[in-house]
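In response to reviewer comment 3 from the previous cycle, which asked for concrete evidence that the modeling workflow produces usable outputs, we include below a single protein chain processed end to end. The sequence was submitted unchanged, and the resulting structure tokens are shown without manual editing.
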Amino acid sequence: MKPLNVIYMSKIEKFEDLHCWQAARVLVKHIYDTTNQGVFSSDYDMKRQIRRASISVMNNIAEGFGRYSKKDFIRFLEISVTSACEVKSMLYAALDQNYMAEEATKEPQAKAEIVKALNLGLIKYLRKPNDPNT
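The workflow returned the following structure tokens.
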């Protein structure tokens, strides 16, 4: 029987296996759905910018995964984190322009925070020295 306090992870072989990328994909879908509605859909500049930021969250995870060094991967994860912050900031701008109700901003902001936290957790893991016993 496996001890309960040990987390077993399957081997990550492609970026699609990363939980942070999966969460980022959900965020992108939410942002696209949101920006296709109401007045938000007619502000092409803001719609384009928040979409680009959300896609940057997802794509930087994938691009970093495809790099050949841990250092590069971490750098792209950090860029993904900053893009998640940009998405959150733009949601405040959308709120201030009355494109969204305050309640409607909470879910995508929470999704951006989840991606950010997952990325930061992966960064922390990648920065750990290699354990020869694992």
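Confidence is low (pLDDT under 50) at residues 1-8. We consider this sufficient to address the reviewer's concern, and the full set will be provided in the supplementary archive.
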